[in-house]
Design brief:
A: 286 residues; mainly beta; six-stranded antiparallel beta sheet; 1 helix; 5% helix; elongated; B: 467 residues; 3% helix
C-alpha cells in the first residue's frame, strides 16, 4: 500500500547496544525500525502503487469489519463494479443519492404539444383555434378561422424531472407556407409552474430577454427578414431563469403559446414539440 | 489505516532469540494486514493504479464527509437486478408527486375547459337531464397517475377551487376515487380506498364533506383519498387513475338550472298574434323565441300579456330552461335561454327528434316517444305492439325499468333505454374573463369547479431505480 520501504536489515545473532543507539544495530535503531514500519504499514506518505495481483479484502481490513473512508474521498478512476450478485447493493445513507457534482448531467425531455389543449377564446378577442392534426401529430391552428386579432392559445403540461435544473425549452413550429408577409405579432411563449392552488409563476423573469413581452412572455425572435423565412420549420429557444430547480412535490409545469396575431397573421401554423433541457445534479428518481 | 504497532520491546543488550524473531514476524504480519483495524489519517493520498484493482467482498462504507468519486468512463456498474438501496430512514423512501389535472381527459369532453391562465381543468357544463327530475348527471374527469413502481401509494389529495360563489350548497358534493386498472382486463377496476378508510361504498369513492355554510364553499378546497387496498404499485400489470365527479344538483349554484313551468307551445316564426303557435290554438302560455325584434322574445300568456311567473327580468335568467308541452315542431322539447338577450336554443336528445307522447294518437311498430315534461322519467320508450291502433286519452304511468312495458290504449310502450341529453347546447364558450377563479363565469355556465392538481404520496420506496 505504501511506498515507504523499511530501511533495515536483519543479522543473525545481532545484539542491540545502547552505545551505538540510535545508529545501526542499536536499540534506538530498532525503535526507529518499528516506527518506520508502522508508518509504512499505514501509508503515511501516501503513494501510487501498482499491484502485481489484485488485493482482496475478504472481510474488511480485519475482524469482518467494513472498509471505511471517513471524511475523505474514495476516488475511482475506472469506476465501481458491483458483481456480487442479486441482493447486494449500493446502500445510501439518509438523504444521500448518487451525485454528479461537476457540471451535472444534461438530459432532454420532449413534450409533444399535441398532448396539450386548445384554450382559445371563442368570442370577441379571438377566433383562432388549435386542433390535433393526425397526419403530423401536431397542433394545427385551424385553417377555417379568419380572425386572428387575438391569436389562438395552447396550453400543455410539460414533461419534467424532479430536482433537475431546467435550463431552457426549445419550441419547434412550422409556420404556414401560405404567408405573404411577416405577421404583425409573431407567436409568444411562456413556461410556468403552478402550485396546488393555481398560483402561477413564470420561469423567465428577466425583462432584458430578447423578445420580452412581459410576465414571462417572450416573443419569437429574431423576426424573419422576409415572409419567406416564416414559411418553414423554425425553432425558438425560451431561456429559463438560472437556477430554476424542478420541484414536483409542489408544482405542475406548463407550456403556454399564443399564436401569431395582427395584420398578415393567417391560419395554418403547426406546433410540434417542446424540448426541455435539464441538468441533473444527482440520480434520485425523477 | 490501522493502529497496530509491532508491539516488540527492544531491550538494550538483549540477544534476539528465534522465538522473538518469530513473534516479531507474526506481529509485523498482523500489522501489515490490519488485524486490529483502527482509524488512520494518511498524510498523503494513497493511489492504487494498474489493472488489477481492489476487490472488496465486504461492505465498503463511506461516512461523514467522505465522497465516492468515480471519474472514469465505466462509472458504476451494477449487477443484474441490483439497484442503489436506501437506508431504512432515507428520505427517498417516501416521495410526493404533484400531477396537473390537465393530464386527464374530461367526459363529456365538451363539458370541461382547460384553463389557459393556470392550467386547471374547469367544469363548464353538466350533462343536464331534466327529464328524470334528478338534476344534472355529473361530468367526470379521469386523470392518470404516474406512479413509482414498487412503492406503496398511501394517499392522493385532490386540489381544486370553487371559483364562483354559490347561492346554496350543491346537493351532491364532488367525489373522487383512486383506481387501478388491469392491463389484461381493462374492465377490471379495483378501487384503492376501502369503506374503513373513508370511501362511501365498495366502489371506493370519497366524497367532499359538505361545509357548514355556503360561504365556505368558495376558493381553495381539497379532498384526501386514503389508499389502503390494492395500493402496492405494480406497473407491470396495472394502470392507475383518479376519477373525479363534479358537484351536481338542481339547487346548488352554478348548476341550479332554473326550470320553469312548461309552456303550451313555442313559436317557430315571428308571431304577429298569439294564435296559433306552432300549430297550437290559443295556448295558455307560449314561448315567443323568434321575434324579428328579439327584445319581444319571451313567455306570454294567451292574449299577449306576460305569463304568470315571467313578468320580471329575474324570472328569466340566462340559462333558464322551459319545457314545451305541445306543438307540431317543438312539442315535447325544451328550450334554454342561451344569452341574456332572449336568444333561445333547443336541447337535443341523443335519440334524435323523438316526439313527445300524445293522447289518442296512432303509433306504428317501433315508434319512439318520450313522456310529456310533466311525466318525465328519463327513459325512452318504443311501441312494441304489432296490432296497435292508438294511445289512450290519458298518459300512462311510465315504467322506469328497462325491458318492462305498459299498455296505453291499444298500444304497448316498452322502456328501452335511458334518455341521454347531450350537453352541447349548454356549454358556454369561454371568454377572457373566466380565467381567474373569482371571476370565472362570463362564459355561459362556465361556473364549475376548477380541478388543479393531484398530490400523490408514496411510501415504501426501497431503492433508487429509474422511474
Amino acid at each position: 500500500m505504501a511506498r515507504i520501504n523499511i530501511d533495515s536489515a536483519y543479522f543473525q545473532g545481532l545484539v542491540p547496544l545502547y552505545s551505538v543507539s540510535p545508529g545501526s544495530g542499536g536499540a534506538g535503531w530498532f525503535e526507529q525500525l518499528d516506527a518506520v514500519q508502522y508508518a509504512s504499514i499505514n501509508g503515511d506518505l501516501g503513494s501510487t502503487h501498482t499491484t502485481t495481483f489484485q488485493i482482496v479484502f475478504g472481510a474488511g481490513l480485519a475482524s469482518d469489519q467494513p472498509l471505511i473512508f471517513s471524511g475523505s474521498p474514495f476516488a475511482l478512476g475506472q469506476g465501481l463494479q458491483n458483481f456480487l450478485g442479486s441482493g447486494t447493493r449500493i446502500l445510501h445513507g439518509d438523504s444521500d443519492y448518487v451525485n454528479i457534482p461537476s457540471g451535472g448531467y444534461t438530459l432532454y425531455l420532449i413534450t409533444n404539444l399535441s398532448d396539450g389543449y386548445d384554450a382559445s377564446f371563442f368570442f370577441s378577442n379571438s377566433s383562432g383555434r388549435f386542433y390535433f392534426d393526425p397526419s403530423t401529430g401536431s397542433f394545427l391552428n385551424y385553417a377555417a378561422n379568419g380572425n386572428y386579432l387575438g391569436g389562438a392559445r395552447l396550453i400543455c403540461p410539460m414533461e419534467v424531472h424532479h430536482n433537475a435544473t431546467l435550463v431552457n425549452v426549445v419550441f419547434w413550429l412550422t409556420p404556414s407556407a401560405s404567408h405573404v408577409a411577416v405577421p404583425e405579432s409573431l407567436p409568444t411563449f411562456r413556461v410556468v409552474r403552478v402550485d396546488n392552488e393555481g398560483n402561477v409563476t413564470p420561469l423567465q423573469t428577466d425583462p432584458t430577454t430578447a423578445g420580452w413581452v412581459g410576465d414571462g412572455w417572450v416573443q419569437f425572435n429574431p423576426i424573419p427578414g422576409s415572409f419567406a423565412g416564416w414559411t418553414f420549420l423554425v425553432s425558438f429557444t425560451y431561456a429559463i431563469d438560472i437556477g430554476t430547480i424542478i420541484d414536483t412535490t409542489q408544482y405542475s409545469y406548463f407550456i403556454q403559446i399564443n399564436d401569431e396575431t395582427g395584420a398578415s397573421a393567417i391560419a395554418g401554423n403547426y406546433y410540434h414539440a417542446a424540448r426541455a433541457q435539464f441538468v441533473f445534479g444527482d440520480l434520485q428518481p425523477g | 489505516m490501522h493502529n497496530t504497532r509491532v508491539r516488540s520491546s527492544w531491550v538494550n543488550g538483549t540477544t534476539m532469540l528465534t522465538t522473538e524473531w518469530a513473534k516479531f514476524d507474526l506481529n509485523l504480519a498482523q500489522a501489515l494486514n490490519g488485524v486490529d483495524g483502527g482509524f488512520w489519517a494518511p498524510q498523503n493520498q494513497i493511489t492504487i493504479n494498474g489493472s488489477s484493482g481492489i476487490s472488496v467482498v465486504c461492505p465498503l462504507i463511506l461516512e461523514h464527509s467522505a465522497q465516492f468519486l468515480p471519474s472514469g468512463t465505466s462509472f458504476v456498474v451494477l449487477d443484474d437486478n441490483d439497484f442503489p438501496t436506501y437506508s431504512p430512514t432515507h428520505l427517498g423512501r417516501q416521495r410526493t408527486i404533484v400531477y396537473p389535472c390537465m393530464l386527464g381527459k374530461g367526459y363529456p369532453r365538451v363539458a370541461w375547459r382547460p384553463r389557459f391562465f393556470d392550467g386547471g381543468m374547469q367544469a363548464v357544463a353538466g350533462t343536464v337531464d331534466i327529464s328524470d327530475g334528478n338534476g344534472p348527471l355529473p361530468v367526470r374527469l379521469i386523470v392518470p397517475l404516474r406512479c413509482h413502481d414498487g412503492a406503496t401509494l398511501t394517499s392522493v389529495t385532490l386540489h381544486f377551487r370553487v371559483g364562483f360563489a354559490h347561492k346554496d350548497l350543491p346537493p351532491t358534493m364532488p367525489k373522487a376515487r383512486v383506481v387501478r386498472m388491469s392491463n389484461a382486463n381493462s374492465e377490471k377496476l379495483a378501487p384503492m380506498t376501502s369503506v374503513a378508510a373513508g370511501a362511501t361504498g365498495d366502489d371506493g369513492f370519497v366524497q367532499v364533506t359538505k361545509p357548514a355554510t355556503v360561504a365556505l364553499w368558495m376558493g381553495a378546497q381539497s379532498l384526501e383519498m386514503v389508499c389502503d387496498q390494492n395500493n402496492v404499485i405494480d406497473l407491470s400489470q396495472f394502470d392507475y387513475y383518479v376519477e373525479i365527479f363534479e358537484e351536481t344538483g338542481l339547487t346548488g349554484y352554478p348548476w341550479s338550472l332554473l326550470v320553469k313551468p312548461a309552456v303550451g307551445a313555442a313559436s317557430t316564426t315571428n308571431l304577429t298574434s298569439d294564435s296559433p303557435v306552432d300549430g297550437v290554438t290559443n295556448p295558455t302560455t307560449y314561448l315567443a323565441k323568434q321575434q324579428t325584434n328579439s327584445q319581444l322574445n319571451g313567455v306570454y300568456a294567451h292574449g299577449g300579456g306576460a305569463a304568470p311567473g315571467y313578468s320580471h327580468a329575474e324570472d328569466m335568467p340566462q340559462g333558464v330552461v322551459i319545457p314545451v308541452d305541445e306543438g307540431d315542431a317543438n312539442g315535447g322539447t325544451y328550450f334554454q335561454m342561451s344569452s341574456n338577450i332572449q336568444q333561445w336554443s333547443g336541447i337535443p336528445t341523443t335519440a334524435g327528434d323523438v316526439p313527445t307522447w300524445k293522447a289518442l294518437t296512432e303509433y306504428g311498430f317501433l315508434s319512439y316517444v318520450i313522456p310529456t315534461p310533466a311525466h318525465s322519467t328519463g327513459f325512452l320508450y318504443a311501441q312494441v305492439s304489432s296490432t296497435a291502433v292508438s294511445t289512450g286519452s290519458t298518459e300512462p304511468t311510465w315504467p322506469t325499468v328497462i325491458g318492462t312495458s305498459v299498455t296505453d290504449g291499444t298500444v304497448e310502450w316498452a322502456c328501452i333505454s335511458e334518455l341521454q341529453r347531450t350537453p352541447t347546447n349548454y356549454v358556454g364558450r369561454a371568454q377572457e374573463d373566466d380565467e381567474t377563479p373569482q371571476n370565472a363565469g362570463f362564459g355561459f355556465f362556465a361556473h364549475g369547479n376548477i380541478y388543479q392538481s393531484l398530490e400523490a404520496h408514496f411510501e415504501g420506496i426501497v431503492d433508487g431505480r429509474f422511474q
